[in-house]
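Re: [ENG-882] Designed sequences occasionally contain unexpected residues at chain ends

Forwarding the minimal case from QA. Structure tokens:
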């Protein structure tokens, strides 16, 4: 798994590539915790290049969402891949996360609220 992050319009963008599974998810968890601890409460996780997501990965994303919500923040996802979207639909997490087709769309949606 490859992780990167940058700031755009006071939103921290986390770019994830590869697989988010039981072995790699702790790295993503550490990054999300670190960003929140540094005062970043509006996060967008770009999952466009994620090839695989398991229950551990879902747990990390839900945990990140809980952390930012404790500070009235947001954690949105960018995902257009059908096989990954299906996981969110099956688990009912499409009702929990904002899922967008681009980083810009996610940022614009948050700013319009």
């Amino acid at each position: 798994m490859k992780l990167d992050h940058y700031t755009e319009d006071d939103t921290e963008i986390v770019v994830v590539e590869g697989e988010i599974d039981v072995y790699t998810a702790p790295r993503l968890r550490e990054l999300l915790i670190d960003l929140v601890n540094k005062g970043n409460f509006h996060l967008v996780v770009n999952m466009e290049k994620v090839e695989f997501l398991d229950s551990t990965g879902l747990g990390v994303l839900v945990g990140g969402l809980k952390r930012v919500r404790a500070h009235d923040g947001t954690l949105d996802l960018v995902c257009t891949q059908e096989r990954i979207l299906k996981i969110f639909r099956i688990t009912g997490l499409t009702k929990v996360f904002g899922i967008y087709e681009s980083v810009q769309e996610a940022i614009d949606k948050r700013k319009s609220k």
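QA comment: On inspection the terminal residues look reasonable. The beta strands are 2-8, 11-20, 42-53, 74-78, 98-100. Proposing we downgrade this to a documentation issue.
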